[in-house]
Sequence to fold (124 residues):
Amino acid sequence: QVQLEESGGGAVQAGGSLRLSCATSAHVLRTYTMGWVRQAPGKEREGVANIESDGTTKYADSVKGRFTISQDKAKNILYLQMNSLKPEDTAIYYCVADRSGWLRRLLPPDSGYWGQGTQVTVSS
Fold:
């Protein structure tokens, strides 16, 4: 059973920072592509960033240079550090574990495992 427990969302002003966390297991970090997918109101889900077990990362153009994905293998936690936040970053952010290859291409997978989601709200 794959468990993904997210935390760290909240409300900030534009230009601010937030760090999202996703607690899971060592097995998941080692054997799945991990990533973050977001969904803004009225919009489709969007892949934000992913990371492989070897540390290779990939980012959506919309967040490149502002967001950083990382993993702490000692604590079994996936992070998303979000800096220089913009109102258009407002969305529910989901932690995702996937083996289908979709998340590797920053596409929201139909399968895989999803966390419960955490709300990020950025005001102007």
Notes: DSSP finds one helix and eleven strands in the chain. The radius of gyration is 13 Å.
